[in-house]
Amino acid sequence: MFNHRKQSRLARPIGLALGAVAAAAFLGGCSGHSSNETRRSTPTTDTPGQEAREKPVGSVTPEPVVASAGSITPASPPSPEEARAAWREGVGLFDKGDYPGASARLRVAAEGRPDHAYTHYLLGIALWRTGDLQGAGQALERASTIDPQSARTFINLARVKLQDDDAQGGLQAADSALKIEPESADALHQRGRALWGLGRGDEALETLTQARKADPENGYIANTIGYLLIQRGRPEEALPLLEAAREKLPHVAYVRNNLGSAYERLGRKALAVEEYRAAIEAGDPDGKAEASLARLEPLSHEPKTAQDTPMPQDGTPVAQEAPGEQDAKNP
Q: Which of 8, 48, 50, 97 lies 20 to 30 angstroms, CA to CA, from 224?
């Protein structure tokens, strides 16, 4: 990610006093290690389908502030007391789920604590949850520079990169995490997703199989593998994985949608309808389950049997990759 700094210039209209204009920017970065001010873990995202999408950064020069007509003084960084207060407020807002508010306060804290990895890390997670992928990537990269031994920082950076359609950047971040924790299921998961994004399907499935062996109870990993198998025209192999994902993540819309897609491709339309309905109840943000249900609803009274005739492959059951995939364990 890259730091971008914009500086306002003063216009001098004839006969009018000068007006003050200033814009604030922030320095991004992130790290997964704890700080002197510890905080409790808060779930963050991990996914295939959902599962979860994500340039170098440096120090930020303070924005000039117009003190009076004709004079400009640089903005002062927050004092240590102001930075600590902003940190405490930011963490409190983060824990309440107010990610825009948390981002605003954590930016102040990060400016006053430029070498504090966890401040930049938490800022990155907060920005990610507001949808600011560029800012999140900058913050996480800054944190990884300060603390290059935090695997969690690189894992979440990989998620942000992937959500931002940067598969190569996601692969690099995942590989950095694996250098620190070679058997990390989360890092292997993100590496598999990145390989798939780069068109290296066989390597992706091999890496994801390693991830599942490392964490067989992880529903997100099972869903990702199932999703990729559907994309490769192998719904019969995807089915048990997606059923396992449903057991772990019954209220995740894309998991239920993917299972519905597998059922539909195997001709089990009544079961597909049940899964699409469950996906809609869980949110269905992209409307894929709703579209599939509208197509299949007239057929929903067919018997629930695996012996139904498979549907033609020109049908439209759509498997769904997790948007911004989240790791429900910790930020």
A: 97
Domain of residue 118: give its range.
Answer: 27-35+76-148
pLDDT in tens, 5-21: 333 333 333 333 333 33
What are 326's two structure tokens? Answer: 């989240």
Q: What is the CATH number of the domain that holds 102?
A: 1.25.40.10
Nearest CA among 111, 93, 110 for reference residue 102: 93
Q: 247: pLDDT confidence band, cut at 50, 70 and 90? A: very high
Nearest to 242 by CA among 214, 278, 206: 278
Q: Is residue 105 part of a domain?
A: yes
Both ends of the chain: CA-CA distance in Å?
Answer: 20
Give the C-alpha distances (Å, rounded to integers) separating 102 from 33, 108, 256.
Answer: 19, 10, 32
Predicted confidence at residue 76, as pLDDT, reads 84
Query: How would you classify residue 267: left for phi > 0, otherwise alpha for psi between -120 and 50, otherwise beta?
Result: left
Structurally, how many domains does the chain consist of? 1
Sign for the CA dihedral angle at 267, 307, 257, 295 comes to positive
Q: pTM (2 decimals)? A: 0.71
Mean predicted lDDT score pLDDT of the chain: 78
**What would the pLDDT profile of 124-139 be if each residue is shown by its tens digit?**
999 999 999 999 999 9
For the chain, counts of helices (H) and of strands (E) = 13, 2
Query: Which tokens is 57 given?
Result: 């950064």
